Amino acid sequence: MSLARLLQLASPALPIGAYTYSQGFEWAVESGAVKDEASALTWIGDQLEWNLGRYEAPLLVRMMEAWSAGDDDAALELDVEYLAMRETAELRAETLQMGYSMQRLLHELGDFPQPLLDAVAVSPAPTLAYVWTCAAAAWQIPLPDALTAWLWNWAENQTMAALKTVPLGQAAGQRLLQEIGRRLPAVVERALAFTAADYSNFAPGFAIACCNHETQYTRLFRS
Predict the structure, then answer these.
(1) Is residue 118 part of a domain?
(2) What are the phi and psi torsion angles at 92 (to 5°)?
(3) Residue 40 and residue 26 in contact, taking contact as beta carbons nearer than 8 Å
(4) Under a CB-based contact definition with an 8 Å cutoff, are residues 21 and 221 in contact?
(5) What is the CATH number of the domain that holds 177?
């Protein structure tokens, strides 16, 4: 059952609106920083290594551990920290919108434990990371598998943004995912070993791209 739930969490069909966001990728194309398959791989690979791999991934590990231990307060502290680290208005709005959508989905599934539904009903709204890790822990998905699924889902969304905005062909998209897939085990292994003192979300190029996207004249994506 945990495998089926894992696939459900990682599915593009999860109705939380992830496909509407590019996290600055669209502006990277507009600026010329990304213009072909090779530069798309560089952009996505660098984000995986320096942004998600060194901050978001280890924080998700701690958050899921808190849920598994029944420590709702610790999970909420991490949620507050995660939201504070969303550097732009669009990144903040993105995680809050998807967190709200994920929260509603869990209600509508009809079988999610009520105490956990109450726990994720925080104000003004929970982040996606907070609700998603709650579901992963409740469904007893092994931590490495859950983290791999989260990163893979992010990589798929970035790849779809590349296909639409560069644009790239379907085969190029699969080559991107093939290479990112090769890198995921090392990123997951490192994130599992990180302590809070190791965290770093220092990625100024990413923050600049997200800021510039907010005022981009024409765009397909919401971030």
Answers:
(1) no
(2) -65, -50
(3) no
(4) yes
(5) 1.10.4190.10
CB 206, CB 51: distance < 8 Å: yes
Amino acid at 23: Q
Amino acid at site 32? G
**Which value, in Å, is the radius of gyration of the alpha carbons in the chain?**
17
Residue ranges in 69-203 assigned as alpha helix (H) = 72-84, 89-109, 114-119, 128-138, 143-165, 170-193
Residues 171, 185 contacting (CB under 8 angstroms) = no
Decide if 85 is inside a domain.
yes
Task: Answer for the pair 92, 83: CB distance below 8 angstroms, yes or no.
Answer: yes
pLDDT in tens, 99-108: 999 999 999 9
Q: What percent of the chain has pLDDT over 90?
A: 83
Angle at 190 between CA 49 and CA 37, to 5 degrees: 25
The answer to whether position 1 is within a domain reads no
Cβ atoms of 75 and 61 closer than 8 Å: no
Contacts of 33 (CB under 8 A, 6+ apart): 39, 43, 209
| Confidence band for 159, pLDDT divided at 50, 70 and 90 | very high
Dig out the tokens for 150 from the structure: 């989260």
Per the structure, how many domains does the chain have?
A: 1
